[in-house]
Amino acid sequence: MSKVSANPYKGIDPRSYFLAHHMDMIHDPLVLRQLLDTEVHNWVPDLKGVAIIALTAAWWEKEPHSVTELGIAELPLPVPYDGTGDFDHAVFEKIEGIFMQVKAIHARIKPNAHLFNKFPGSGNPDKFNFGRTVFVNIEEARQGLLSILCRPGIQGPGFQPVVLVGHAIHNHIARINEAFKLDILSLGSVIKVLDTQSLAKDVGIKPPKGTNISLMDLSRHFGMIPDNLHTAGNDVVHILINAVFASLQSHPFGFGSNNRTVGDFTERINMLVNRMMQVGKVYPPQNWGTLLFCTRCDRDNHLKESCHAAYICCTICVNSPNMRNRKGARSHQTAKCIFAPVPESKD
Ligand SMILES: [Zn+2]
Ligand SMILES: [Zn+2]
Questions:
Q1: What are the backbone dihedrals phi and psi of residue 199, each rounded to the nearest 5 degrees, phi first?
Q2: Distance 304 CA to ligand 1 centre (A)
Q3: Does residue 345 surpass a pLDDT of 50?
Q4: Of the candidates 282, 299, 330, which is a domain's last residue?
Q5: For residue 296, how far is its CA from the centre of ligand 1 (angstroms)?
Q6: Is position 297 within any domain?
Q7: Residue 181 resides in a domain
Q8: Ligand showing the shortest atom-to-Cα distance for residue 316
Protein backbone atom coordinates (compact mmCIF):
# COMPACT_ATOMS: atom_id res chain seq x y z
CA MET A 1 0.00 0.00 0.00
CA SER A 2 1.29 3.40 -0.92
CA LYS A 3 0.95 6.62 0.98
CA VAL A 4 0.98 9.99 -0.70
CA SER A 5 2.18 11.71 2.41
CA ALA A 6 2.66 11.21 6.09
CA ASN A 7 -0.02 12.53 8.41
CA PRO A 8 -0.32 16.17 7.22
CA TYR A 9 -2.20 17.60 10.20
CA LYS A 10 -0.47 20.61 11.72
CA GLY A 11 -3.35 22.15 13.70
CA ILE A 12 -4.17 22.10 17.41
CA ASP A 13 -7.69 20.71 17.45
CA PRO A 14 -7.69 17.45 19.44
CA ARG A 15 -10.51 15.90 17.38
CA SER A 16 -8.83 16.72 14.07
CA TYR A 17 -5.59 15.36 15.48
CA PHE A 18 -7.36 12.10 16.34
CA LEU A 19 -9.07 11.87 12.92
CA ALA A 20 -5.80 12.59 11.10
CA HIS A 21 -4.14 9.81 13.05
CA HIS A 22 -7.02 7.44 12.27
CA MET A 23 -6.82 8.22 8.54
CA ASP A 24 -3.06 7.80 8.59
CA MET A 25 -3.47 4.29 10.00
CA ILE A 26 -5.96 2.98 7.43
CA HIS A 27 -5.55 2.04 3.77
CA ASP A 28 -6.08 5.17 1.62
CA PRO A 29 -9.11 3.82 -0.35
CA LEU A 30 -10.86 3.23 2.98
CA VAL A 31 -10.80 6.96 3.78
CA LEU A 32 -13.43 7.97 1.23
CA ARG A 33 -15.38 4.76 1.78
CA GLN A 34 -15.64 5.57 5.46
CA LEU A 35 -16.47 9.23 4.80
CA LEU A 36 -19.18 8.21 2.34
CA ASP A 37 -20.48 5.97 5.06
CA THR A 38 -20.58 2.88 2.92
CA GLU A 39 -18.85 0.76 5.54
CA VAL A 40 -20.90 -1.62 7.58
CA HIS A 41 -18.36 -4.01 9.04
CA ASN A 42 -15.35 -1.93 10.04
CA TRP A 43 -15.13 0.25 13.10
CA VAL A 44 -15.31 3.88 12.03
CA PRO A 45 -14.95 6.91 14.30
CA ASP A 46 -17.46 9.77 14.18
CA LEU A 47 -16.55 11.58 10.97
CA LYS A 48 -19.27 14.21 11.20
CA GLY A 49 -18.25 17.58 9.80
CA VAL A 50 -15.27 16.38 7.76
CA ALA A 51 -15.12 18.17 4.39
CA ILE A 52 -14.01 16.35 1.22
CA ILE A 53 -12.45 18.95 -1.08
CA ALA A 54 -10.84 18.33 -4.46
CA LEU A 55 -8.36 20.94 -5.60
CA THR A 56 -6.38 21.41 -8.78
CA ALA A 57 -4.58 24.16 -10.67
CA ALA A 58 -3.59 24.71 -14.28
CA TRP A 59 -0.52 26.67 -15.24
CA TRP A 60 1.14 27.97 -18.34
CA GLU A 61 3.37 25.42 -20.03
CA LYS A 62 6.21 27.93 -20.40
CA GLU A 63 8.34 29.65 -17.77
CA PRO A 64 7.49 31.01 -15.26
CA HIS A 65 4.58 28.51 -15.24
CA SER A 66 2.11 31.13 -13.98
CA VAL A 67 -1.05 29.63 -12.48
CA THR A 68 -3.86 30.34 -14.93
CA GLU A 69 -6.80 28.49 -13.35
CA LEU A 70 -8.07 26.91 -10.14
CA GLY A 71 -10.59 24.10 -9.89
CA ILE A 72 -12.32 23.32 -6.60
CA ALA A 73 -15.10 20.84 -5.96
CA GLU A 74 -16.54 19.72 -2.67
CA LEU A 75 -18.33 16.47 -2.08
CA PRO A 76 -21.27 17.25 0.22
CA LEU A 77 -21.61 15.23 3.38
CA PRO A 78 -23.51 12.05 2.77
CA VAL A 79 -26.75 10.97 4.24
CA PRO A 80 -26.31 7.91 6.45
CA TYR A 81 -26.43 4.54 4.72
CA ASP A 82 -28.23 1.91 6.71
CA GLY A 83 -26.03 -0.91 5.45
CA THR A 84 -28.83 -2.88 3.83
CA GLY A 85 -29.21 -3.71 0.17
CA ASP A 86 -26.95 -4.39 -2.70
CA PHE A 87 -24.07 -2.28 -4.04
CA ASP A 88 -25.65 -1.13 -7.26
CA HIS A 89 -28.99 -0.28 -5.74
CA ALA A 90 -27.95 1.18 -2.41
CA VAL A 91 -24.40 2.43 -2.55
CA PHE A 92 -24.32 3.56 -6.17
CA GLU A 93 -27.63 5.37 -5.83
CA LYS A 94 -26.36 7.13 -2.77
CA ILE A 95 -23.15 8.15 -4.56
CA GLU A 96 -25.21 9.54 -7.44
CA GLY A 97 -27.29 11.61 -5.03
CA ILE A 98 -24.14 13.05 -3.46
CA PHE A 99 -22.52 13.89 -6.81
CA MET A 100 -25.63 15.68 -8.03
CA GLN A 101 -25.04 18.27 -5.30
CA VAL A 102 -21.43 19.03 -6.31
CA LYS A 103 -20.98 22.71 -7.13
CA ALA A 104 -17.62 22.96 -8.83
CA ILE A 105 -15.70 26.20 -9.00
CA HIS A 106 -13.66 27.13 -12.05
CA ALA A 107 -11.70 30.31 -11.41
CA ARG A 108 -9.43 31.85 -14.03
CA ILE A 109 -6.70 34.08 -12.71
CA LYS A 110 -7.13 37.50 -14.36
CA PRO A 111 -3.45 38.52 -14.78
CA ASN A 112 -2.68 35.11 -16.39
CA ALA A 113 -5.97 34.24 -18.09
CA HIS A 114 -4.70 35.22 -21.55
CA LEU A 115 -2.01 32.50 -21.46
CA PHE A 116 -3.14 29.46 -23.44
CA ASN A 117 -1.33 26.13 -23.51
CA LYS A 118 -0.65 24.41 -26.82
CA PHE A 119 0.65 20.98 -25.79
CA PRO A 120 -1.22 17.97 -27.24
CA GLY A 121 -4.36 17.45 -25.15
CA SER A 122 -4.15 20.87 -23.50
CA GLY A 123 -7.55 22.07 -22.38
CA ASN A 124 -9.55 25.06 -23.51
CA PRO A 125 -10.21 27.19 -20.38
CA ASP A 126 -13.13 28.86 -22.19
CA LYS A 127 -15.02 25.56 -21.97
CA PHE A 128 -16.03 24.63 -18.42
CA ASN A 129 -18.62 21.87 -18.61
CA PHE A 130 -19.84 21.74 -15.01
CA GLY A 131 -20.83 25.32 -14.20
CA ARG A 132 -20.00 28.93 -14.93
CA THR A 133 -16.43 30.18 -14.92
CA VAL A 134 -15.45 33.12 -12.74
CA PHE A 135 -12.46 35.45 -13.16
CA VAL A 136 -10.50 36.43 -10.05
CA ASN A 137 -7.41 38.44 -9.24
CA ILE A 138 -4.65 36.94 -7.09
CA GLU A 139 -5.99 38.29 -3.79
CA GLU A 140 -9.55 37.17 -4.55
CA ALA A 141 -8.26 33.67 -5.32
CA ARG A 142 -6.27 33.63 -2.09
CA GLN A 143 -9.30 34.75 -0.04
CA GLY A 144 -11.52 32.28 -1.88
CA LEU A 145 -9.18 29.40 -1.06
CA LEU A 146 -8.96 30.50 2.58
CA SER A 147 -12.75 30.72 2.89
CA ILE A 148 -13.05 27.13 1.71
CA LEU A 149 -10.08 25.59 3.52
CA CYS A 150 -10.41 27.48 6.84
CA ARG A 151 -14.02 27.21 7.89
CA PRO A 152 -15.03 27.12 11.55
CA GLY A 153 -15.38 23.57 12.80
CA ILE A 154 -18.74 22.31 13.92
CA GLN A 155 -17.13 20.59 16.91
CA GLY A 156 -14.24 21.97 18.94
CA PRO A 157 -12.18 25.12 18.62
CA GLY A 158 -10.28 24.47 15.36
CA PHE A 159 -11.13 24.60 11.68
CA GLN A 160 -13.42 22.15 9.94
CA PRO A 161 -11.24 19.11 9.17
CA VAL A 162 -10.50 18.78 5.44
CA VAL A 163 -9.64 15.71 3.38
CA LEU A 164 -7.88 17.16 0.34
CA VAL A 165 -8.15 15.22 -2.92
CA GLY A 166 -6.11 15.78 -6.08
CA HIS A 167 -4.30 14.25 -9.03
CA ALA A 168 -0.50 14.50 -8.64
CA ILE A 169 -1.66 16.78 -5.87
CA HIS A 170 1.71 17.70 -4.39
CA ASN A 171 2.71 19.45 -7.64
CA HIS A 172 -0.53 21.40 -7.53
CA ILE A 173 -0.18 22.30 -3.85
CA ALA A 174 3.33 23.61 -4.57
CA ARG A 175 2.12 25.77 -7.50
CA ILE A 176 -0.81 27.13 -5.50
CA ASN A 177 1.38 27.88 -2.49
CA GLU A 178 3.78 29.83 -4.67
CA ALA A 179 1.17 31.67 -6.73
CA PHE A 180 -1.08 32.72 -3.86
CA LYS A 181 1.42 32.86 -0.99
CA LEU A 182 -0.59 30.24 0.81
CA ASP A 183 0.87 27.22 2.59
CA ILE A 184 -2.16 24.97 2.30
CA LEU A 185 -0.86 22.15 4.49
CA SER A 186 0.09 24.58 7.28
CA LEU A 187 -3.31 26.22 7.56
CA GLY A 188 -4.29 23.77 10.28
CA SER A 189 -7.31 22.21 8.58
CA VAL A 190 -6.01 19.44 6.30
CA ILE A 191 -6.13 16.08 8.05
CA LYS A 192 -5.54 13.86 5.01
CA VAL A 193 -4.21 14.17 1.46
CA LEU A 194 -5.50 11.70 -1.12
CA ASP A 195 -4.10 11.37 -4.62
CA THR A 196 -5.98 9.65 -7.43
CA GLN A 197 -2.73 8.28 -8.91
CA SER A 198 -1.92 6.61 -5.61
CA LEU A 199 -5.52 5.41 -5.06
CA ALA A 200 -5.43 3.81 -8.52
CA LYS A 201 -2.25 1.94 -7.61
CA ASP A 202 -3.70 0.87 -4.27
CA VAL A 203 -6.68 -0.82 -5.93
CA GLY A 204 -4.65 -2.32 -8.80
CA ILE A 205 -5.66 -0.04 -11.70
CA LYS A 206 -2.68 -0.17 -14.04
CA PRO A 207 -1.66 2.74 -16.24
CA PRO A 208 -1.48 1.81 -19.96
CA LYS A 209 1.95 3.42 -20.01
CA GLY A 210 4.42 4.80 -17.49
CA THR A 211 4.20 4.43 -13.73
CA ASN A 212 1.54 7.04 -12.88
CA ILE A 213 -1.86 6.92 -14.51
CA SER A 214 -3.15 10.07 -16.25
CA LEU A 215 -6.52 11.54 -15.34
CA MET A 216 -7.73 10.66 -18.85
CA ASP A 217 -6.67 7.01 -18.56
CA LEU A 218 -8.13 6.67 -15.08
CA SER A 219 -11.42 8.16 -16.31
CA ARG A 220 -11.38 5.71 -19.23
CA HIS A 221 -10.92 2.83 -16.79
CA PHE A 222 -14.36 3.72 -15.41
CA GLY A 223 -15.82 4.06 -18.90
CA MET A 224 -15.82 7.87 -18.99
CA ILE A 225 -14.61 9.81 -22.00
CA PRO A 226 -14.00 13.21 -20.43
CA ASP A 227 -14.46 16.27 -22.61
CA ASN A 228 -11.79 18.97 -22.48
CA LEU A 229 -9.53 17.86 -19.62
CA HIS A 230 -6.42 19.88 -18.65
CA THR A 231 -8.61 22.79 -17.76
CA ALA A 232 -8.97 23.04 -14.01
CA GLY A 233 -12.76 23.13 -13.72
CA ASN A 234 -13.31 19.94 -15.74
CA ASP A 235 -10.28 18.24 -14.17
CA VAL A 236 -11.42 18.79 -10.61
CA VAL A 237 -14.81 17.14 -11.15
CA HIS A 238 -13.17 14.11 -12.75
CA ILE A 239 -10.66 13.96 -9.90
CA LEU A 240 -13.51 13.75 -7.40
CA ILE A 241 -15.43 11.13 -9.40
CA ASN A 242 -12.32 9.00 -10.00
CA ALA A 243 -11.24 9.23 -6.37
CA VAL A 244 -14.62 7.95 -5.21
CA PHE A 245 -14.87 5.19 -7.83
CA ALA A 246 -11.29 4.04 -7.24
CA SER A 247 -12.04 3.86 -3.52
CA LEU A 248 -15.22 1.91 -4.22
CA GLN A 249 -13.41 -0.48 -6.54
CA SER A 250 -12.11 -2.26 -3.46
CA HIS A 251 -15.47 -2.13 -1.70
CA PRO A 252 -16.76 -5.55 -0.64
CA PHE A 253 -19.95 -4.88 -2.61
CA GLY A 254 -18.19 -2.83 -5.26
CA PHE A 255 -16.97 -3.21 -8.80
CA GLY A 256 -15.36 -6.58 -9.10
CA SER A 257 -17.59 -8.36 -6.57
CA ASN A 258 -20.41 -10.78 -7.39
CA ASN A 259 -19.06 -11.13 -10.95
CA ARG A 260 -19.72 -7.45 -11.56
CA THR A 261 -17.20 -5.47 -13.52
CA VAL A 262 -16.66 -1.78 -14.01
CA GLY A 263 -18.20 -2.26 -17.46
CA ASP A 264 -21.55 -3.07 -15.85
CA PHE A 265 -21.60 0.47 -14.47
CA THR A 266 -20.29 2.36 -17.51
CA GLU A 267 -23.67 3.51 -18.76
CA ARG A 268 -24.74 4.65 -15.33
CA ILE A 269 -21.45 6.48 -14.72
CA ASN A 270 -21.80 8.36 -18.00
CA MET A 271 -25.39 9.26 -17.23
CA LEU A 272 -24.20 10.62 -13.91
CA VAL A 273 -21.53 12.80 -15.57
CA ASN A 274 -24.04 14.12 -18.10
CA ARG A 275 -26.52 14.99 -15.38
CA MET A 276 -23.78 16.72 -13.38
CA MET A 277 -23.04 18.90 -16.42
CA GLN A 278 -26.70 19.84 -16.81
CA VAL A 279 -27.23 20.57 -13.13
CA GLY A 280 -23.91 22.43 -12.78
CA LYS A 281 -25.00 24.91 -15.44
CA VAL A 282 -28.20 25.62 -13.54
CA TYR A 283 -26.60 26.28 -10.12
CA PRO A 284 -25.88 29.97 -9.51
CA PRO A 285 -22.17 30.80 -9.92
CA GLN A 286 -19.93 31.06 -6.86
CA ASN A 287 -19.84 34.48 -5.29
CA TRP A 288 -16.19 35.12 -5.97
CA GLY A 289 -14.78 37.12 -8.84
CA THR A 290 -16.63 38.27 -11.92
CA LEU A 291 -18.43 36.34 -14.64
CA LEU A 292 -17.07 38.67 -17.30
CA PHE A 293 -13.46 39.60 -17.98
CA CYS A 294 -11.76 40.36 -21.26
CA THR A 295 -8.31 38.78 -21.55
CA ARG A 296 -7.55 41.22 -24.38
CA CYS A 297 -8.29 44.65 -22.85
CA ASP A 298 -8.65 43.71 -19.12
CA ARG A 299 -12.14 45.20 -18.77
CA ASP A 300 -14.70 43.21 -16.80
CA ASN A 301 -17.87 43.99 -18.71
CA HIS A 302 -17.36 41.64 -21.67
CA LEU A 303 -15.50 38.52 -22.82
CA LYS A 304 -12.71 38.65 -25.40
CA GLU A 305 -15.05 37.36 -28.14
CA SER A 306 -16.99 40.63 -27.93
CA CYS A 307 -14.00 42.94 -27.41
CA HIS A 308 -14.11 46.11 -29.48
CA ALA A 309 -11.27 47.93 -27.76
CA ALA A 310 -9.43 49.66 -30.59
CA TYR A 311 -6.25 50.82 -28.92
CA ILE A 312 -4.85 47.37 -28.07
CA CYS A 313 -1.44 46.92 -29.66
CA CYS A 314 1.63 45.14 -28.34
CA THR A 315 4.75 47.23 -29.03
CA ILE A 316 6.97 44.13 -28.84
CA CYS A 317 4.97 42.16 -31.43
CA VAL A 318 4.27 45.08 -33.75
CA ASN A 319 8.04 45.62 -34.11
CA SER A 320 8.88 41.92 -34.38
CA PRO A 321 10.78 40.63 -37.47
CA ASN A 322 8.39 37.67 -37.43
CA MET A 323 5.27 38.33 -39.52
CA ARG A 324 3.08 36.05 -37.38
CA ASN A 325 3.98 38.08 -34.29
CA ARG A 326 3.19 41.34 -36.13
CA LYS A 327 -0.19 39.93 -37.15
CA GLY A 328 -1.00 39.04 -33.53
CA ALA A 329 0.09 42.39 -32.11
CA ARG A 330 -3.48 43.65 -31.72
CA SER A 331 -4.60 40.62 -29.70
CA HIS A 332 -2.94 41.69 -26.44
CA GLN A 333 -1.34 44.51 -24.51
CA THR A 334 2.44 44.94 -24.29
CA ALA A 335 2.48 44.12 -20.55
CA LYS A 336 0.94 40.72 -21.25
CA CYS A 337 3.10 39.78 -24.26
CA ILE A 338 4.14 36.14 -24.16
CA PHE A 339 7.17 36.98 -26.30
CA ALA A 340 8.51 39.44 -23.73
CA PRO A 341 11.43 38.24 -21.59
CA VAL A 342 10.05 36.52 -18.49
CA PRO A 343 11.63 36.46 -15.01
CA GLU A 344 13.79 33.46 -14.13
CA SER A 345 11.80 30.66 -12.52
CA LYS A 346 12.67 29.94 -8.92
CA ASP A 347 12.46 26.16 -9.29
ZN1 LIG B 1 -11.98 43.70 -24.33
ZN1 LIG C 1 3.24 40.77 -27.96
A1: -60, -40
A2: 5
A3: no
A4: 282
A5: 5
A6: no
A7: yes
A8: 2
Task: Please report the pLDDT score of residue 2 as a whole number.
Answer: 45
Question: Pairing mode, if any, of strands 67-75 and 105-109?
Answer: antiparallel
CATH of residue 189's domain is 3.30.420.10
Shared domain for 194 and 96, answered yes or no, is yes
Coil/strand/helix, residue 31 = helix
234-253: pLDDT as tens digits: 999 999 999 999 988 766 65
**Residue 300 in domain:** no
Q: How many angstroms separate the alpha carbon of residue 111 from the centre of ligand 1?
A: 14
pLDDT per position as a tens digit, 60-86: 998 889 999 999 999 987 654 445 545
C-alpha closest to that of 265 among 92, 13, 12, 40: 92
Residue 141's domain comprises 14-282
pLDDT tens digit sequence for 139-171: 999 999 999 999 998 766 789 999 999 999 999
The pLDDT confidence band at residue 346, using thresholds 50, 70 and 90, is very low
Q: E strands along 185-341, which residues?
A: 190-195
Asked if residue 93 belongs to a domain, the reply is: yes
Check residues 255 and 125 and name the one with the higher pLDDT.
125
Q: How far is the CA of 286 from the centre of ligand 1 (A)?
A: 23
Same domain, 265 and 315: no
Q: Which of 47, 21, 19 is nearest to 34 (CA)?
A: 47
Structural domains in the chain (count)? 2
Centroid of ligand 2 to alpha carbon of 138 (angstroms): 23
* 134 touches 106 (CB < 8 A): yes
Section 222-231 average pLDDT: 95
